[in-house]
Specification:
Length: about 120
């Protein structure tokens, strides 16, 4: 039985977050999102983190695929959606968007990382 306080995909999640932190330590804030995407892709390869970048993901409605899709920044391990931003602050709409992506794709876990601050913490 899984501990109710355990994180979903804990080891994989820590690896992803660790890679994001390394990229942020090296680059700092202030770059465009595309710069962080490219650096993160290199870091994922270096750490052997399974990922797909800029993946088109179909949305679902009542179990049926829709014509609409969204482009995920990263899909890691075929089950963790990673959306990255490079903003001075995040608005609630970004969080709501990620939650809607998770609901409509039926993916179990999403991470939202903002590289636009002094620290990822």
């Amino acid at each position: 039985m899984r501990d109710k306080n355990a994180l979903l995909y804990e080891e994989k999640t820590y690896k992803i977050i660790g890679a994001c932190m390394k990229v942020h330590r090296n680059l700092g804030p202030g770059f465009l999102e595309s710069v962080y995407q490219e650096a993160l892709e290199k870091e994922f390869k270096s750490q052997k983190i399974d990922f797909q970048r800029q993946l088109k993901i179909r949305l679902m409605y009542e179990g049926q695929p829709m014509k609409k899709y969204f482009v995920a920044d990263f899909l890691c391990y075929d089950k963790i959606l990673l959306e990255i931003k490079a903003a001075s602050f995040l608005v609630k709409d970004v969080e709501a968007q990620l939650i809607n992506y998770l609901k409509s794709t039926e993916l179990p876990l999403g991470l939202l990382v903002n590289f636009g601050q002094k620290s990822l913490v």
